[in-house]
Amino acid sequence: MKPIILFDGICNFCHSSIQFIIKRDPNAYFLFSSLQSDIGQSLLKQNKIPFTMDSMILIENGKVYDKSSAVLRICKNLSGLWKYMYIFVIIPLPIRDLIYNIVAKNRYKWFGKKDTCILPNHEIRKRFLS
């Protein structure tokens, strides 16, 4: 199965991040699901991920990555220079996740949120698990 990115479907920053990934994933390597969707909730349960997890999550080859580790592994598979962001994996995890947590904690305040998840256009919709 293709790697799946779970994201906060009502977060403006998260939505923009998914659009960013889609534009730099021309081979459709990733599939997507919001954490709030039935499939997202099922994937959390199936992978023994706490429902309170407040992070972007990557499920790839049977392994679960969250926070900065998920972001860097996603970047590794993007086109262009973004794949070189993976070099930041050398930064100790607590430092990477500290930065991630600051952004995650303030994402609604800084970027806002929506009342509902946004539906992608028809071409991209097939990459979203519903």
Automatic annotation (TrEMBL):
- Know the name of this protein? Thiol-disulfide oxidoreductase DCC
UniProt organism field: Lederbergia lenta
Q: Which Gene Ontology MF annotations are present?
A: protein-disulfide reductase activity
The answer to keyword Transmembrane applying to this record is yes
Segments spanning the bilayer are 84-104
Highest taxon of source: Bacteria
Entries under Pfam families matching the protein:
DCC1-like
Which keywords fit this entry according to its UniProt record? Answer: Membrane, Transmembrane, Transmembrane helix
Question: Which InterPro entries does the UniProt record give?
Answer: DCC1-like (IPR007263), DCC_oxidoreductase (IPR052927)
